[in-house]
Every structure is written in structure tokens, then in C-alpha cells.
Amino acid sequence: MTHESGRPRGDGPDVAGLQRRLAEFAEARGWGPYHTPKNLAVALSVEAAELVEIFQWLTPEQSARVMDEEESAHRVRDEVADVLAYLLQFCEVLGVDPLAALSAKIDRNEIRFPAP
To answer: Can you tell me the distance from the alpha carbon of 86 to that of 14, in angstroms, rounded to the nearest whole number?
Structure first.
């Protein structure tokens, strides 16, 4: 049985599927010419700053409880989604596999920073 998105029910979204949806969304609106690596990197930075803004004046204790209140939790989820959307679009435009890049970075960090 499949979900209306075409993926099997119960499975979460996959990176390639999300990238495809984002590309189709942008294409339908004629945004493709604006989705250059530079513009996407800038947009990613802006959205990351909006995520930081939520925590700007919170104490460490308040920041640890940010998901306890629905309004702040909603803001965090929205900004995380925006950051991820721009990162996935950036990767798509440059042909970077984000999961492979992360795996390779973890491998390098394990060598660079061995556990005691």
C-alpha cells in the first residue's frame, strides 16, 4: 500500500524524493533561474540565522525546553524545514549526495578525533 506521495506507507520521506518535490515546486513557479549555488547558499545562511534567532536570548535551561511550548516548537520545526530545504536544493544543484558527504565527514572525524 502506498501513500498519495507514491512512497510506501509507514516509511518516512527519502532525500531524493524531497529533492524532487522541491525541484518540482520551484520549477512550477519559475524559480529555477534564481536557484544558483550562490543564492541557495545565501538563503541557507539566512534560514539558519532565523533558527538561531529563536534561541538568541534564551538561557541554556530555556533553550532545552523550547519544544515544550507549541508556538516555539512550531517555529523551530518551520526553521529546521527551511534550512533543510535550502540545503537539499543546494546539494541537488551541485550534484552533492548529502548523506554520502555526511558519512564521509564522520569517517574523517573518527580518524581525526579518536575516542579516548
So the answer is: 16
Q: How far is CA 73 from CA 51, 53, 83, in A?
A: 11, 13, 15
The label of the residue with cell 535550502 reads: 86
What fold, for 36-111?
Helix Hairpins (1.10.287)
Average pLDDT value for residue range 106-115: 97
- pLDDT tens digit string along 19-70? 999 999 999 999 999 999 999 999 999 999 999 999 999 999 999 999 999 9
Considering only CA atoms, which of 29, 33, 13 is closest in space to residue 85?
Answer: 13
Question: At 88, which amino acid appears?
Answer: L
Contact between 116 and 53 (Cβ < 8 Å): no
Average pLDDT over residues 68-85: 98
Local structure of 69: helix, strand or coil: coil
- What HEC string does 16-52 produce? HHHHHHHHHHHHHCCCHHHCCHHHHHHHHHHHHHHHH
- Measured CA to CA, the distance from residue 88 to residue 59 in angstroms comes to 31
